[in-house]
Amino acid sequence: MSKVTDLVLSEVKPIIAKRNDEFVDIEYVKEKGQNYLRIYVDRQPNGIDIDEIADLSELVSKKLDSLDPDPFPDPYVLEISSPGVERPIKTDRDWENAVNKYIHISLYQKVNGKKIYEGTLKSYNDEEIELEIKIKTRRKTLTIPRKLIASIRFAIEF
Predict the structure, then answer these.
(1) Which of 82, 89, 90, 124 sees the fewest Cβ atoms within 10 Å?
(2) Residue 95 contacts by C-beta under 8 Å, 6 or more apart in sequence?
(3) Is 85 helix (H, G, I), strand (E, B) or coil?
(4) CB under 8 Å to 16, separation ≥6 — which residues?
(5) Are strands 76-81 and 102-111 parallel, antiparallel or unpaired?
(6) What is the tens place of the pLDDT at every residue in 98-140?
(7) Which domains can be identified in the chain, with CATH numbers?
């Protein structure tokens, strides 16, 4: 993480935690000439709604405006949002919540001839995951080394 996101995180995590919200991710990026500070939050078990996000946004904005010295070298847009149903799997809690859920995985190199899989995460450990996939009408369990996973997120099964 950058110095800006590290500092912001140390200031806003207590605000997020006090509301019983869950910090998911943070990014400070420049897109089309505009800087964005994006903070992703969620609330278990039913998610976070737009009114709760608006309230949190106001609290975080006030906190960031009060910081002296200002950690932002340039003007920025603050965006606080839910990571959505297809959120990335990053934290230990995400991994725990992903067991028996439908997920999407992109790999660095092919496993059984493919680099992208969708299926149900059956189990995981530090070394590998077990993913149950459907091939036509049959189900098959793949063991995939975690070091081959480029990205992993929740997915919607159709």
Answers:
(1) 90
(2) 89, 124
(3) coil
(4) 22, 23, 41, 56
(5) unpaired
(6) 999 999 999 999 999 999 999 999 999 999 999 999 988 899 9
(7) 3-81 (3.30.300.70), 92-154 (2.30.30.180)
In terms of DSSP H, where are the helices of 3-130?
3-18, 50-66, 92-98
Alpha helices in 2-157 (DSSP H): 3-18, 50-66, 92-98
Among 83, 82, 80, 49, residue whose Cα is nearest residue 154: 83
Q: Which two tokens stand for residue 7?
A: 């500092």
Amino acid at 113: G
Beta partners for 88? Answer: 153
150 in Cβ contact with 140 (< 8 Å): no
49, with CB counted inside 10 A (0-12, 13-18, 19+), is exposed
Residue 10 buriedness (CB in 10 A; 0-12 / 13-18 / 19+): exposed
DSSP character for 147? G
Tokens found for residue 126: 């530090």
**Nearest residue to 124 via CA among 101, 107, 140, 108:** 101
